[in-house]
Amino acid sequence: MKFSHMIFGLSCMLAGVSTQAADYPERTISLSVPYGSGGSTDGIARQLARLLEQELGQPVVILNQPGATGTLQLGNLARAKPDGYTIGLYSYSTATFTSQLLKVPYTRDDFELLGGVAEFSYGIVARPESPINNIEDLISRAKSEAGVFYGVTGAPNNFPFLQLQKVTGGKFDQITYKSSAESINAVIGGFVDVALQGPSEYVELVKAGKLKVIASASNYRLPWFPDTPTIKEQGYDVGITGIIGVAAPKGIPEDAKARLQAAIHKVVSGSEYGQFLVNRYGIKSYPASAADFSVYIDKGFSIMKNMIKTYDIKGL
Question: Which residues form the signal peptide (predicted)?
Fold first, then answer.
């Protein structure tokens, strides 16, 4: 009789555990973003949150936490309670590059990666009357007495120019601007020869005939400019990666982690989300699993360490 009572009690306990796991999430989830409202990263996060709400059955609210070149948000995320109700965007460049140039209050081990979200696109633009129409023209200009002046907002947007300078011996002079818009306007005004930014920064200017795209600096052709070859297609193994995903503080409960991973992967793999990214920002979805995203990030640390050493990049 006592044994039967023990079995019944154990069954109730197991049922309670199962119910508890199935109940997640029971309240609002916060998704932190490393930039202010209104930009492309914020827009991506809001669409992701909207679709995750449908999948998880609970509100997903955006927390904009700009500052310290993206490391403020990751620092806050690392210190958040690991209960499954605070997650955040996790940027490849901030995690693998910026963290090796700045003293940051976290390490890779402070995060549980939940999956990939988006892959940013980058292109090089010039004035329509410029003799620079492709990468060969760009290199010819760099090897001339005039050299090439390029506008960027800093690393890693300057990586392709640093790489081209090293492999060709051309002269590439960097002019750093506070915003993407400033670097684009500098091209239009003739203050620099070219700039490298995302397509949403210049698509309307290209349509208006005020700029031209000479190359995709991503590993694929830009969705909005499919006829423009990549730098790699033009003969140089050079490119820039802009991957973002989602992470949680280390120690998140297994049931919450599994539910979030599945929900994120389903949303990011879906056509609604993918079409939104292409139509609104001219970029691609990045539906990597948590495991694949983790491998990609872990490899990135050594890649970025080598970049910093090879090109003698100083602290930010």
Answer: 1-21
In a domain, 109, yes or no: yes
Domain span at residue 166 reads 123-234
Confidence band (pLDDT; 50, 70, 90) for 315?
Answer: low
What's the pLDDT tens digit per position in 245-285? 999 999 999 999 999 999 999 999 999 999 999 999 999 99
**Which of 173, 203, 234 is the endpoint of a domain?**
234
Together in a domain, 113 and 127:
no
